[in-house]
Amino acid sequence: MAPTRAVPAGADDPPIQPTERDPSTYTKRGRVKRDLYDAELARLQEQLVMLQYWIQSQGLKVLVIFEGRGSAGKGGVIKRITERTSPRIVRVVALPKPTSRERSQWYFQRYVEHLPAAGEMVLFDRSWYNRSNVERVMGYCTDDEYQEFLRSCPEFERMLVRSGIVVIKYWFSVSFEEQRRRFESRNAEPLKRWKLSDMDLAEHELYVEYSMAKDTTFQFTDTKQAPWHVVPSDDKRAAHLNCISHLLAQFDYEDVAPDAVTLPQMKDVPYVRPPMHEQTFVPQLW
């Protein structure tokens, strides 16, 4: 039996690993192989396109929330979801820091305007859960604001569900060791260093405090109407496939993709275009 890793009090539990690893599927490090990942991702992305047509045809309102630690892989899976879907149907919301005006509003107010309308799926790259995680740990909110969030958030999400919005929440869980490896990788490459912010460094140092905040968040907001779904993400490829597979499984969708159309012929209109040499072209380097 492999030795168990000691986990700091309040830290995320280490992902449960399968007892056997198929060498044709996994690398020696136990990660999903690239060729299998590429093939399975292509299949899942095709299904995501089918799902978007279904959401549009049925007038569904779908909200998907992605939360978790820095470098846990939220952005990666969002990128894979949107890679082949239409931005008019599947759109991403990643809000910046609130303005002074927004800070004076009801906390949920700036998020409400981004909620999905009929026929849309909205992906929140972080959401109102900033309050019970980042803001709580970093001291950016008062204790009264934090307690009010824990009281009001479950009711707010129940309101969304009652209004007909499908609410799906994912928490990406990454171990301290893997997070450190990813941060070190960013730090070592100048082209990736912009991804390593002061907030990331503070979060890494306060890993246990963030774990405690996450546990309290789950205690209050892991409800029957809007449950949390944890995605172990030390293996990014597996996390992408597992999350997208789970997302697709939440819908009993059918293939309503439009049939191929016949492209029209160009209409013959009497028109003489201006000389091409009068236009400025990009230099043809290739």
Short description:
The protein is an alpha/beta fold.
Q: Could you explain how this protein is built, in words?
A:
Helix content is 42%, strand content 11%. With 286 residues, it is an alpha/beta fold.
Q: What percentage of the residues does DSSP assign to strands (E)?
A: 5-15%
Distance between the termini: 57 Å
The gyration radius over C-alpha positions equals 23 Å
The main β sheet shows up as: 5 strands, parallel
Give the strand order, joined by hyphens, for the main sheet. Answer: 2-3-1-4-5
Number of domains: 1
What's the CATH architecture name? 3-Layer(aba) Sandwich
Task: Assign the CATH class.
Answer: Alpha Beta
Question: Mean pLDDT score, rounded?
Answer: 93
In helices, the fraction of residues equals: 40-55%
State the shape. globular
For CATH, the homologous superfamily is named as: P-loop containing nucleotide triphosphate hydrolases
Sequence stretches where pLDDT stays below 50 over 5 or more residues: 1-10
For this structure, the CATH topology is Rossmann fold
Q: Determine the structural class based on helices, strands and strand pairing.
A: alpha/beta
How many beta-strand runs?
5
H/E element sequence: HEHEHHEHHEHHHEH
Number of helices: 10
Enzyme class: transferase
Function: Uses inorganic polyphosphate (polyP) as a donor to convert GDP to GTP or ADP to ATP.
EC number: 2.7.4.-
InterPro entries: P-loop_NTPase, Polyphosphate_phosphotransfera, PPK2-related, PPK2_PA0141
List the helices and strands and how they pair.
Blueprint: H1 34-58, E1 61-68, H2 74-82, E2 90-93, H3 100-103, H4 109-112, E3 120-125, H5 131-138, H6 143-162, E4 165-173, H7 176-188, H8 198-205, H9 207-221, E5 228-232, H10 236-249
Parallel strand pairs: 1-3, 1-4, 2-3, 4-5
Helix pairs in contact: 1-10, 2-10, 5-6, 5-9
